[in-house]
Amino acid sequence: MRAEASANLKKLLEIEKRLFLSTDDLKTQHAKSLQGSLDASKDLQKEFATIEKKKEELADYLCEDRKKLSLEDLFSTMTTFRELFLKALQENQDRKEQAAKSEKRKKQLKGEDAKRLKGEYGKSGTLNNN
Fold it and tell me: What is the rounded CA–CA span in Å between residue 75 and residue 81?
């Protein structure tokens, strides 16, 4: 992409030279749009330079080789990490909910068992009295 932008800038500069040598009518007709394109292309080059500088700073921060660091690979790794992290968070949440449900069910069963045992002993106690 950067190579394409550089090639486009070179073409625009060539067109600017040709336009300078052309007639006044062509100059007035195309000078404004050409200048706008040149400005945009130069701004794009500045953005590429900024990205490259930030990439080098990031490589230094990560203790990676500046020349070998691939932003695409880095972003891909970060995306994969994020997806796996979010999946682990969801699994942990699901486990907590499942444990809470299990604990609630155990308490419920314990309560039912206690009531049943109390009911059985209560009946047997009345049977022994008769």
Answer: 10
